[in-house]
Amino acid sequence: MLSPFFQEKGLEAGCDEAGRGCYAGPVFAAAVILPRDFHHPLLNDSKQVKPAQRNTLRDIIREKALAWAVASVSPAEIDQINILQASYKAMHLAIAQLNTQPDLLLIDGNRFKPYPTIPHHCIIKGDGKFASIAAASILAKTYRDDYMLQLHEQYPQYDWASNKGYGTAAHRKAITQFGLCDEHRKSFAINPVQTSLF
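Now predict its structure.
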């Protein structure tokens, strides 16, 4: 059962990212402020929700949320600043796009780069504990998946329609066969010339 809020008063924005461990594509993040009485029986950590249900939830969240935003950081910038900092930046960009400023940020995970003017709490596995973080995980995941489906049209050899840029055996084999493309994160140990993964 997801908790509807962390504290008794004020607006809370749940924040989560998607694609942090991928070999390719941007990292996405979302920030969501839900009404304090929001409840939906399907809402959960995006990894625990079926794809069709995630898309249904996305529509409901966008309709019912008091505010929501999604942002991303490109593979090239991930290579420049590292994936941890890129994840923080994506969250900050999403928070900055909210049309209502929350009083508190609920961050999925155990670390975060503080956002100016808004206090935060880091919550390990928060996407399975708090509704607003779960909602953010749904938005980040569905927006990223849709983006990877678009990239698949340009780079079908990597089968991103199925693996979404994660390091599956088929994806690693494709890298060995075709090499890396512009959408791969070059700072990750994914080049078959540079790593013993292959």
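The helical segments are 51-64, 75-81, 83-97, 131-154, 160-163, 169-178.
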